[in-house]
Write a structure and sequence with these properties.
The chain has helices at residues 2-17, 24-30, 39-50, 52-55, 71-76, 95-101, 120-131, 161-172, 186-197, 204-212, 218-227, 230-243, 261-273, 277-286, 295-300, 317-337, 356-366, 393-416, 422-425, 437-446. The protein is mainly alpha-helical. Helix 9 (186-197) packs parallel to helix 11 (218-227), helix 12 (230-243) crosses helix 13 (261-273) and helix 16 (317-337) crosses helix 17 (356-366).
Amino acid sequence: MGRFLMGLGVLTLVWACETTSLPPDVAAAYATLPEEMDYNKHVKRILSDKCFACHGPDAKKQKANLRLDVAEVAYARETESGFKAINPGSATKSELVRRILSHDPETIMPTPESHLVLTPHEKAVLVKWIEQGAAYKPHWAFVTPEKKSAPDLNDGWVKNDIDRYIAETRHALSLKQKMFAPQADRETLIRRLSFDIRGIAPSVTEIDAFVSSKDPRAYDKLIDNFLASKHYGERMSAYWLDVARFADSNGYLDDKHIDMSPWRDWVVSAYNRNIPFDQFVTWQLAGDLMPRATQEQILATGFNRNHKQNTEAGIIEEEFRVEYVVDRTNTLGAAFLGLTLGCAKCHDHKYDPISQKDYYSLYAFFNSTFEKGSSNYGGTDMVAGPTLLLTTPAQEKKMGELKKQIERLEEKVWIANPQSSRAGATVAPVQILSSSKLSQKIVAKLD
């Protein structure tokens, strides 16, 4: 307590020497802040919540020609007081600090009319951040992840890198080792591991084998066995299916069944085969655009068709076609970019660097497809197109043989009648077929 009061007094003295003093509640909050202020972790949420509405990315809402989301603008913008909006390294010469600490209703920011109020803690964060140089950072989604080495700590009980991070935190918080809970018994360990990796409980046989094992690597081997299980892919895919808005019904009105199980099974298989992540991403977004796209690559694009589909007879098709394109655009942002793109559908994003023009430029990618805004009609087995005729390797082989036979026959027709157009003589390639009765008959003939 004595150190806290001493620090509080020093802070007040320093600010008094610079002609501005911190209010007692802000000074108290300042004394509790972490040593280093991070823009993305500590500062941006405050600016987004309390400042960006008037001084953020939305050009139509900006006031005083000031943007606090762009460092160059915030640093360069001079105010009537002669201060820069943000003067890196000098809180007392920053207009932002003068405004947030003011009690004058004509000066204070946020303005009383906004009904937004900064807490003492938030004010302290902004002050300390500016004192430390007001360093901005890009949106976290634009920052390349960096692999860091685990802390070089070993307290005698450390067995792996996770333990090293625990040890680091223990030292930072001055925790004693006896405060840690003892290791769980083997029955508990195998249940936790099984639920974490496979999503199901271990069998009695598995529990008995693990509990009675004398192998020092029994736990490591258990992990390998669970990772090799088909249930691993099912467990992992559950998270991705949520991101991809997977469902087995249309989601509108009478909510009819829609079969997206082949795509779901592909996701499970992709996890179990541990396919490279770049393929996992690329195939789902544009597998059909890959050179000589395989059936698997085309099937993966089912990711883009997991949105709700309206089967009502009276809908305006173009209205819902646009809704589907919007859904795909928004899902791309959430799943792959880590961004809330949907905000920019109606206006420039108020918190992230995404303009409305940016949004519709990306929207145009999905808007280039040819489709209707309503599902096909004619029976319960109809699936909204475009759809894919799924064939087995044996059926693919048979179709290849039939294709060659057709080409030979077309060649004979052209030789017998050279006047006919070779292109005209060819049969138009069969487009991706649905599981309709027609495609079922084709598959039946192939079998």
